[in-house]
Specification:
single chain, alpha/beta, 10 strands
Length: 524
């Protein structure tokens, strides 16, 4: 059995002498012996580490041993304190008894007396641990459901006698209720069969109980929905550190995270009910503040008073941003809808807002002959998975991925459509090079405005429509000039030029020579 001990004395020589005697005693092997040269240093040590026994000098400067122990009892009410003093003073002894001291030794301390005190305290600590372990077993077999029912449904006035008898020794030295919940468990267990689910539940239960036992955290009651109710008997600071370490240890052991909500420390059985309510409320704001953490105060959530009032306008901006593949603007719209760092406080408000967003997007896309679910290749039930998420952050992250995906698919689809339109326009123009062709006429044929088609053509080809048409005609002229039987004026007419002078000028501007010189140059 491992017992930790803290030695406190402002005299360096006396402190080292005491440390060697404690470590070297022949009856109890203290695994962890820590020292402190002042009450302030000792308190810091107790806030960082679990301490079973304190051996402290009474007379120390600034903070006396008595003052130190009063504060130490607030941190860890069950710690065993033995005072050491070089002054045989009944007043000191009387005050030590009032503080609940386990012993009072006079300097120079006799080896046999010191060892006897340590053996006695070690036996008492071992007995307390066995009692707590026995209590945990009793709770898990007999009173667990009754205790949970009182926490869930009862009131402090309705506590049954045997439930009170179970809780009384726990609350006596100060206790708080913590509720630990495995995050996203239902979603993660979907791929497991019943045997695998039961095996995980058993492993998780054993892990939490073993952790609480090894770290003297308190009593564990397996709750419903893979939750654990922990009656922590450690001090507030020590309990906070142990619960945070439990979260980390659980994550290391399993491919799951854990969130824990805690209530206030109380010393009356009836007050444990309020501590449970506080822990449940703290765990409830996981929806807002996030998971995989310790939540000690439900008021740390800052809910919005109402959802965004201009949903339709924001969704309109987001849709335009999606069509332009502007992911930053899409994300800005999403943040505006869900309030950034001040998310909606109730899940039903969140789901109402999501339904409004999806309905608006679906209606707008239908006006463009698009279908939201077809574009995203969703099954009709897929958006229902939103209801499985446990935090606002998870929902917004999922929506962000889906909206980015929608933006990419819309953008790629429109780009493909644009390339198809440009190809059709090109083929249409090639077939009519002998005619008078204008942007207005081509745009009207394909059902676009001239401005839109001109912009689309410039975007896709990096060339003005007029330059494209002129270049296409000149390339066709070069091909026709290779036929020596064709007259130049005939070629000009075949590519839509009715004015031979204008034709010659345009060709020379394109090729650097006149049509006749072009033939001579290429020996045509």
């Amino acid at each position: 059995m491992e017992i930790s001990i803290l030695l406190v004395d402002d005299e360096t020589v006396d402190l080292e002498w005491l440390r060697r005697r404690v470590v070297g005693n022949g009856h109890v092997a203290f695994q962890r012996v820590r020292t402190a040269s002042s009450g302030f240093e000792a308190l810091k040590t107790m806030e960082q580490y679990p301490i079973d026994i304190v051996l402290s000098d009474i007379r120390m400067p600034i903070m006396s041993g008595m003052e130190f122990v009063r504060k130490a009892k607030d941190i860890h009410p069950q710690v065993q304190v033995v005072f050491i003093s070089g002054h045989q003073d009944f007043g000191f002894a009387k005050e030590a008894i009032q503080l609940g001291a386990a012993g009072y030794l006079l300097k120079p301390v006799d080896d046999a007396e010191l060892n006897g005190t340590l053996v006695e305290l070690a036996a008492k600590i071992a007995g307390d641990r066995r009692q707590r372990a026995s209590l945990t077993e009793t709770l898990s077999i007999v009173n667990q459901e009754l205790l949970l029912r009182w926490f869930h449904e009862g009131t402090p006035e309705q506590i049954e006698a045997h439930v009170r008898s179970v809780l009384a020794p726990i609350a006596q030295g100060g206790a708080a209720v913590a509720i630990a919940e495995v995050d996203d468990l239902l979603r993660k267990l979907e791929g497991m069969d019943d045997g695998e689910r039961n095996a995980f539940a058993a492993r998780a239960n054993d892990f939490v109980r073993e952790y609480a036992k090894n770290h003297r955290l308190g009593t564990v009651v397996a709750g419903h929905d893979h939750r654990f109710v922990i009656l922590t008997t450690a001090s507030e600071e020590e309990g906070k550190a142990l619960l945070e370490e439990l979260i980390q240890a659980f994550s290391r052991e399993f491919s799951f995270t854990m969130t824990i909500g805690t209530g206030k420390t109380v010393r009356e059985v009836d007050e444990l009910h309020e501590s449970y309510r506080q822990a449940k409320a703290a765990l409830g704001i996981k929806w807002i503040v996030g998971k995989n953490r310790l939540i000690q105060d439900a008021s740390m959530g800052a809910p919005r008073e109402k959802m965004a009032a201009n949903v339709e306008q924001v969704v309109d901006r987001m849709l335009r941003a999606m069509l332009d593949y502007d992911l930053v603007a899409v994300d800005d719209g999403l943040r505006e809808l869900f309030g950034g760092d001040r998310p909606l406080s109730q899940k039903n408000e969140m789901y109402d807002l999501i339904i409004r967003i999806n309905s608006k997007l679906h209606a707008e896309l239908q006006q463009m002959n698009e279908h939201l679910y077809d574009i995203l290749q969703w099954e009709s039930h897929q958006p229902e998975m939103l209801f499985q998420f446990e935090t606002v952050h998870d929902i917004i992250s999922w929506l962000r991925r889906r909206f980015f995906e929608l933006s990419e698919r819309l953008y790629m689809k429109r780009q493909k459509q644009k390339r198809g339109i440009v190809h059709k326009v090109t083929e249409y123009v090639k077939e009519r090079l002998d005619q008078k062709i204008t942007l207005n006429e081509v745009a009207a044929h394909f059902g676009f405005t001239p401005n839109y088609l001109g912009h689309l053509f410039k975007t896709e080809t990096n060339q003005l429509f007029s330059d494209f048409l002129a270049e296409l005609r000149m390339k066709r002229v070069c091909e026709l000039l290779e036929d020596p039987t064709k007259k130049i004026y005939e070629i000009a007419d075949q590519v839509g030029y009715k004015n031979i002078i204008y034709f010659n000028r345009q060709f020379k501007q394109y090729a650097g020579v006149s049509p006749g010189e072009y033939r001579k140059k290429h020996k045509l």
